[in-house]
Predict the 3D structure of the following.
Amino acid sequence: LHLSLRRQRQMCIRDRFRRRRDTFGAKLKEAKLPFVHSKGGIYSWLRTPPGYNSEQFETFLLQEKSILVAPGIPFGKNGKHYVRISLALDDKQLEEATERLTDLANMYNG
């Protein structure tokens, strides 16, 4: 019985993150923002707009949009032009962050 309850909880958590990932991704895709989801992780990678590296964009997002992300540079050379966005927020916070990010589409699409 204990194992069954534990498995149910794991499936519930997995489904919650899958839903968040899918909703977040659909909205970024609609805004034509370049991103990739981590495989099996609880975060996504957003490409930086032209003229920004990941540390510059991380600072911009925090100061201008009140969004805290992790710069990609510490994660390897491929992270230079990506920031890591956690999906481990409650749904309302993630929805607000998504709206703020999609407002930046003009930075990518000129």
Notes: The mean pLDDT is 91. The CA atoms of residues 87 and 93 lie 10 Å apart. The radius of gyration is 15 Å. Residues 2-30 form the longest helix (29 residues).
